[in-house]
Amino acid sequence: MRIGITLTGHDKETLDEAVAGIVKAEVDGFSSVWRPHIFGIDALTLLALAAKETSRIELGTAVVPTYPRHPHALAQQAATVQAASGGRLALGIGRSHQVVIETMFGLEYSKPIAHMRDYVTVMSSLLNEGNCSYSGKAYSVNAPLTVPGGSGVPILIGALMPKMLDLCGALCDGTLTWMCGPKYVENTVVPRLAAAAEKAGRKTPRVVVSLPVCVTDKADEVREYAGKVLVQYGHLPVYRSCLDAEGLEGPADIALIGSEEEVQAGLRRIAGAGATDFYAAVLPEGSRGPTARSDEFLRSLGGTL
Asked: Could you tell me if 48 and 80 are in contact, meaning their C-beta atoms sit under 8 angstroms apart?
């Protein structure tokens, strides 16, 4: 299992700071670095800048919301980052959540499976063939895309529920999970992906798992803190289903918190469940606590487990 890290940034983060974080992740030996795309710095623009300062590390988005962006526009941007990085981009996309798309952005959030099927089909055609002629339920696109060095972008989607996993297995290069533990990975994610991929005559996509991580001697205190800062995930239906499958009460219970040995055992359970990749979301030891011990432990893994 490859080991990466997610860098979420902070409200006052500058572009220079964000790029420096990605450069450091490469120096620290991580296999991949993943950047969310929420309400701050544009993830793909940042990765294009970081590509010129790095040479090896995989550069991923986790995830870019699809509803606000036409698939041709996102394919064009992704192809440009692919060219800038010499083929190191992993494009993670997702439908986000109803509260974001409808309440905050004022867009329609409906028919997510049909939407994602059309979206991925259009993007795959543009990124792999340089042209798209497609008429679907959500999108009809007849347009070329020409970005030298920009082809072959792997497309990963935030797929957790069965129907989206079926779509991922049939069309995508991987799934990106969050708040998803080893039981759900082994019993639902991997078999659904494998069955759909086999039916479509494709190899099984990557299973890229992410969870909060904190190496500490203050496990109870950190879990209490995690319960507060992660509480919203326990109320979102998709993540709630994953937590229920693990028999856990809330997001703090699925986090990997404890000694080096305990966290490593948790990572081994995830690898044993069938995950191909893991990227850590490092938790501090409290609201202003240090992360040095977690950082050192993750660096010591050397990018793989």
From this structure: yes
